[in-house]
Amino acid sequence: LVLPLSSVFRAVGLIQRGMGAYARVEQALTLPAEPVEPTTPRCPGTAPAVRVVPREEPVLELRDVTFGYDPDRPVLRGVDLTVPYRRQTALVGRSGAGKSTVFALVARFYEPDSGALLFDGLPATGLTRAACRARIAVVDQNTHVVHGTLRDNITYAVPDAPEAEVRRVVELARLDDVVRRLPGGLSGMLGERGGTLSGGERQRVALARALLARPRLLLLDEPTSHLDAINESALARVMKDVAGECALLVIAHRLSTVQHADRIVVLEDGRAAACGTHEELLAVSPVYRELAAGQMLRPASGPLPAAGTAR
Ligand code: ATP
Q1: Interface TM-score (ipTM) > 0.95
Q2: Ligand 1: which residue has its CA nearest to atom 31?
Q3: Fewest beta carbons within 10 Å, which of 31, 102, 133, 265?
């Protein structure tokens, strides 16, 4: 009796797992297809492939962008946003203000209902989605670590990256400690789902992976939780360094990580309601003051804390 019963239980478990997997596959298969692009999108009078981009030009601009998932209920209403090269720009706002929607438009998962997106001064509508995405790297909250070595995880998208480049991003993402600690260093195994790393370290592995592609624009959705003070301060320092290499646009859920950003944009009611530094916004933006008060933040004083220093 025991043997047949245990076989039945095993079979039930298998069927349940299979049904879960089937639901996930079905979810992916029923995703709406991206709208078909014109075969040769081209800005009038420009040849995107050969255009030399002045380094000072904003890497990304949103001009008067209005967008709603349902066109009758706009999420963004006439948003203007400029993301300069070698600067850290942060997007803040209450939950549901439209921060992730800005990212979805920049990655061109959706097109604005009106207004324009410009990459390096070129209207996005004149570029293919592939050309836009080639300029961008995205690090979201779901940091994926695959079973393999630390190096495999960093070079996932650029497998033949030169050693010097790998070392550069390891340093930039402040992974030196992990390299020293891991038996085998860069060749050390990370284990299933990166189990040997903390949440903050996994985040920085994802950052290193993104930086290896040398993007013009890095979109970072800062993690909402599970970062201790040491990892939080490490992330703030990495963001500062990364902003020296590209344009950095961060969705900030906690203001402490972005209070040293060059510019902070406050989204409210679908509009860019205020823009400035932490100190300026504390003085002029009631929403920002409310967000800061909720997180018990005072005016930023002095430089960033030293790496590894809990505040
Ligand atoms: P949070 O800080 O909570 O992540 P957010 O500022 O990033 O919020 P969004 O995720 O951009 O806000 O959402 C803005 C609005 O758009 C919300 O009302 C949300 O319910 C709606 N929304 C977001 N994604 C979709 C979608 N795929 N389809 C329909 N509505 C959506």
Answers
A1: yes
A2: 69
A3: 31
